Amino acid sequence: QFGLVESGGALVQPGGSLRLSCSASGLVLDYYAVGWFRQVPGKEREGVSSISRSDGRTLYADSVKGRFTISRDNADNTVYLQMTNLKSEDTAVYYCALGLVVSLTTGAYGSWGQGTQVTVSS
Fold first, then answer.
1. Cα 68 to the chain's mean position, in Å?
2. Which of 6, 34, 67, 73 is buried deepest, with most CB atoms within 10 A?
């Protein structure tokens, strides 16, 4: 049995930075494309970023381009989402998920973590 665990969410002021982690157990994360998504109450889950399983190709939502960076650490079996210049509209629960191809659509992913809360507020 495998598991995905997100961590790193916190309360941060506008303009601040956070690094989210997506750690896996029971599987090799490098075998999968990994996506980061976020969701606020009453809205659909939104794709934020994705990284491929082979060539390191990345994809970002327009709303986070230039501010967020996705990366892998295969030695730690972890995918990170570095978030800088955070804005109030980045407030959401952030989820990571496993897929086979780089994508920002939820349908491309089959396994999800439980989420971590990011709140951007002064």
1. 10
2. 34
Q: 40 vs 1, 3, 43, 101, 117, CA distance in Å? A: 29, 23, 6, 25, 10
Q: How far is CA 45 from CA 9, 34, 48, 90, in A?
A: 17, 15, 9, 13
Instruction: Using CA atoms of 44, 45, 47, 51 in order, give the dihedral in degrees to the nearest 10.
Output: -160
What's the rounded Cα separation, in Å, for the pair 36 and 6? Answer: 10
pLDDT of the chain, 122 residues: tens digit per residue: 778 999 999 999 999 999 999 999 999 999 999 999 999 999 999 999 999 987 889 999 999 999 999 999 989 999 999 999 999 999 999 999 999 999 999 999 999 999 999 999 99
Nearest Cα neighbor of 27 from 115, 80, 97 is 97
